[in-house]
Amino acid sequence: MRIEREGYVDALTPILKQFLEERFGGISLDKLQSSEERRADYVCLDGALAIEIKTLEGDSSERMKNLSLELQKQSDYPLFLGGWPLNSVIKNMSNPHLLTKKAISRIGRPVVAHIKKANKQLAAHSKNMPHPQLTKILLLINEDHEIYQPQIVAQVAKQELERKGGNGFSYSDIHAVIYITERHVTLIDDQLIFPFTVIEGPAMNAEPWKRDLVQIFRDEWGSWAGKNLLNSDHYKCEFRTIEHVPSKMKRHELWALEYRRNPYLRSFTNDQLRDKFDENIVTTMLWGLKSSPCKMSSADRARNMEIFTHLQQEISVRGLPITFFKREKERELEAAKRLRLPQLVIDWLKNINVKSDEEIR
């Protein structure tokens, strides 16, 4: 399943603030004189619901870049063709489980920081604005970053809420974390379903009626926003990232997008994919080396480059290291035969040494 979109994307945080005010009688406490460390962002339902809003605004790219640089220093770091997603890199290394945990930890750092700060604010709010049946919620909002997948955010938040300190649970003033993202979606019965991720704090077990309030929040948000929601903590469901298609892109980016829309190589075995790669290399040599006995039109060259982009896309998804595609003379000769190239070309391929051949045209 693959879903894409185009156009301008509205910020989600202002929309949720409007929802709180219209459906829950939310009152913003931002204009109060007290410091933000001593209060929540919103009180709703006549003070019975305190909501602290935290937004995931950064995309973690710098942290993930640093992790990638660390991995490159390891002796088992795989050599690969083009750009690889991090999970493809990790699965080719010696301890993928440990490295996956490390990657999740890097992605989740903003989530942990928000939980720590929100717990202090909600604890102070309880003292400054007490209510006999106060429910305290951290509303975590993803501002359109694909890296903050619901499964990852839920895993990190659950781990933090279950963390214990010297006097019990470290974050006991957060009854639940509600994570909302519109960059991730699943498809059920041809309908787009957005995740509504709830991570309960330990205090929820002592006051289970608060779950009803969270469910009301979910139903009201879905109704108000016109969204089909799925409690992603209750269902084993894989949410996919929506791909945002820019209005302008480079030629190779368009080729890559077209392949993701129609991944025609997906049914190939790895060996068949390597055969296709060999054929592309042979064709590239024909138009790229000065000693080539054949000429190719500009259109044929462009098509060859387009196919190479498609191959890069498929190889990165599978996580096949470049060693799998190490060039071999016999394979290239077989590729030439499959392409039904003339004997003149086959003889040229037999004698050519690419490393010492003339410069590429």
Would you write up a description of this structure?
- This protein is α/β, with parallel strands linked by helices and 361 residues long.
- It folds into 2 domains: 4-60 and 108-244, no CATH class; 251-351, no CATH class.
- It is 45% helix and 16% strand.
- The chain is built from 13 helices and 13 strands.
- It has helices spanning 12-23, 61-72, 86-90, 96-107, 109-128, 150-161, 203-206, 210-225, 251-261, 270-288, 298-318, 329-338, 343-351, and strands at 4-6, 27-28, 42-44, 49-56, 135-142, 164-165, 168-169, 176-180, 184-188, 191-200, 229-231, 240-241, 243-245.
- The strands form 3 sheets. Strands 2, 3, 4, 5, 8, 9, 10, 11 and 12 form a 9-stranded mixed sheet that branches. It has a two-stranded parallel sheet with strand order 1-13. It has a two-stranded antiparallel ribbon with strand order 6-7.
- Helix 10 runs antiparallel to helix 11 (298-318) and helix 12 packs antiparallel against helix 13.
- The longest helix is centred in the C-terminal third of the chain and has 21 residues, at 298-318.
- The two termini are 41 Å apart.
